[in-house]
Recover the amino acids of this structure.
């Protein structure tokens, strides 16, 4: 009887944890993040939400992060967790900047 109780308790905990795992954001590779950001910037220029100078600045920042990613990969043969966290933080900052620039209601000429 005790084994059955432990088994049921274990299944209950697993069932409770399942929705939180299912709701987690899927892992995105760094190259996919770069492609997504480039696409968002290009779309912003086409729609008029970004001016050309804003797009040039954002693409320059993105190019700097891509260069850093390349240097990280070359230095140790692969990117370790600390370096990946740094790159993720930088990509997140650029993503937030893209969102801000697209929604700043700045007049476009």
């Amino acid at each position: 009887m005790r084994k059955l109780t432990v088994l049921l308790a274990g299944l209950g905990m697993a069932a409770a944890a399942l929705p939180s795992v299912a709701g987690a954001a899927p892992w995105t590779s760094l190259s996919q993040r770069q492609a997504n950001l480039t696409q968002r910037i290009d779309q912003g220029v086409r729609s008029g939400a970004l001016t050309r100078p804003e797009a040039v600045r954002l693409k320059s920042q993105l190019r700097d992060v891509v260069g850093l990613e390349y240097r990280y990969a070359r230095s140790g043969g692969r990117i370790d967790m600390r370096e990946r966290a740094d790159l993720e933080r930088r990509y997140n900052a650029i993503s937030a900047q893209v969102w801000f620039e697209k929604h700043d209601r700045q007049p476009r000429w």
